[in-house]
């Protein structure tokens, strides 16, 4: 049966609900659920935090007239789970409640599910429809899908550049480029990714904390590439205040909240790092610099999304921003005096709006 306008409306509502779990449900996917009866919403919910009840559980609990569930239509953004994890299988709960129909946005690529949830529902006599707003669902859960399908974290590149194409002053002198609103937005971005990465030079010159101060949410795991352990122990990244991973060619014992991960000089750097983060169950990384790190990831195609904050300021010289062209402009908007460009990685083509 083809989807109706009401079906689309309900799935969009479920996607909006799912988005509320961003930064809290990780490393689980974000999921929303809406339950309807005869064209009326009787319950809705989302996966609020990792280890807590899933979206379907919260939506069913919100239904005050439980007897209506046997004649209900359930809209859920991801295939209901069929295995025991932190919580019991949601497919079993839907079967127990005797729901009549389930509409699913995306199938779950996790090998523990991968169609088993759908099969279990159908075997119980529940009518199941799949693929409604599938592309919107994949974008919403892009971190989860990339992690499952490519066996690496979702990589977001971010930098701020001046109108004449610089991201720092001469000799990497730190310069305030973006405005206050953009700085707040960057802190929001930090809450949405599981980890945040910088290279040695950025760590040395900026001495960043890489935490969240301007937006409510969880601090990401900090990652620094320090091949030869150049960072002094007094630097913020080594203060043990939040989980931190140092990737290095040297050996050093790990301490509380500070893990030293050895690298092989014989192998390419970033494939090693991304594979290790995959093994650590880190699903997404926000890369905040510096230019060597950003250019390397761009050149190797090891990125999924790029976010560029362009300021009207002019430096006239300094450290150049990455010059590799980008296609796949997904979003562009003004934020105070700054302009923000969001790119989704494309298979071919290289272009970027000209700097003014």
General description of the model:
The chain has 356 residues and is an alpha/beta fold. It has two domains: 5-145, Cytidine Deaminase, domain 2; 151-344, Dihydrofolate Reductase, subunit A, CATH 3.40.430. The chain is built from ten helices and 16 strands. The protein has helices at residues 5-19, 55-61, 90-97, 116-123, 134-140, 142-150, 180-192, 200-206, 269-279, 291-300, and strands at residues 32-37, 40-46, 73-78, 101-106, 127-130, 154-161, 166-168, 195-198, 221-225, 244-248, 258-262, 284-287, 305-310, 319-320, 329-335, 338-344. It has a nine-stranded mixed β-sheet. A five-stranded mixed β-sheet has the order 2-1-3-4-5, sandwiched between helices. A two-stranded antiparallel ribbon has the order 7-14. Mean pLDDT is 92; it is low at 348-352.
The main sheet orders its strands as: 11-10-9-8-12-6-13-16-15
CATH class category name of the largest domain:
Alpha Beta
Structural class label: alpha/beta
Q: Architecture of the largest domain, CATH level 2?
A: 3-Layer(aba) Sandwich
What is the CA-atom radius of gyration, in angstroms?
23 Å
> Could you give me the name of the CATH homologous superfamily of the largest domain?
Dihydrofolate Reductase, subunit A
β-strand percent reads: 15-25%
CATH topology of the largest domain: Dihydrofolate Reductase, subunit A
Give the uncertain stretches in residue-range form. 348-352
Question: What percentage of residues falls in helices of 4 or more residues?
Answer: 25-40%
Listing every helix as H and every strand as E from the N terminus to the C terminus, the arrangement reads: HEEHEHEHEHHEEHEHEEEHEHEEEE
The total of helices stands at: 10
The number of strands is: 16
Distance between the termini: 51 Å
Specify the overall morphology.
Answer: elongated
How many strands, what sense, and barrel or not for the largest sheet? Answer: 9 strands, mixed
């Amino acid at each position: 049966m083809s989807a109706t306008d009401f079906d689309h409306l309900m799935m969009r509502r479920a996607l909006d609900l799912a988005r509320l779990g961003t930064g809290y449900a990780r490393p689980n996917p974000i999921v929303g659920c809406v339950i309807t009866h005869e064209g009326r919403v009787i319950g809705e919910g989302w996966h609020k935090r990792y280890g807590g009840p899933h979206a379907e559980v919260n939506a069913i609990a919100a239904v005050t007239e439980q007897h209506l569930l046997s004649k209900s239509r359930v809209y859920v953004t991801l295939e209901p789970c069929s295995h025991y994890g932190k919580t019991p299988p949601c497919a079993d709960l839907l079967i127990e409640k005797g729901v009549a129909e389930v509409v699913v946005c995306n199938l779950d690529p996790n090998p523990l599910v991968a169609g088993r949830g759908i099969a279990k529902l159908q075997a119980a006599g529940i009518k199941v429809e799949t693929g409604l707003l599938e592309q919107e669902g994949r974008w919403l859960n892009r971190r989860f899908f990339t992690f499952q399908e490519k066996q690496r974290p979702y990589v977001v590149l971010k930098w701020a550049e001046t109108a004449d194409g610089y991201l720092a002053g001469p000799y990497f002198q730190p310069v305030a480029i973006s405005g206050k609103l953009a700085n707040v937005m960057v802190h929001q971005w930090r809450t949405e990714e599981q980890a945040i990465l910088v290279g040695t030079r950025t760590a040395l010159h900026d001495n960043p904390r890489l935490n969240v101060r301007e937006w409510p949410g969880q601090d990401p795991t900090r990652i620094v590439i320090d091949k030869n352990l150049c960072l002094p122990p007094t630097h913020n990244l080594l203060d043990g205040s939040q989980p931190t991973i140092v990737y290095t060619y040297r050996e050093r014992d790990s301490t509380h909240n500070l893990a030293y991960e050895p690298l092989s000089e014989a192998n390419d750097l970033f494939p090693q790092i991304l594979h290790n983060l995959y093994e650590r169950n880190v699903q997404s990384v926000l890369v905040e610099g510096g230019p060597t790190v950003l250019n390397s990831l761009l050149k190797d195609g090891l990125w999924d999304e790029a976010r560029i904050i362009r300021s009207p300021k002019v430096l006239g010289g300094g450290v150049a921003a990455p010059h590799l062209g980008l296609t796949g402009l997904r979003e562009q908007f003004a934020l105070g005096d700054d302009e923000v460009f969001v790119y989704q990685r494309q298979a071919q083509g290289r272009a970027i709006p000209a700097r003014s």
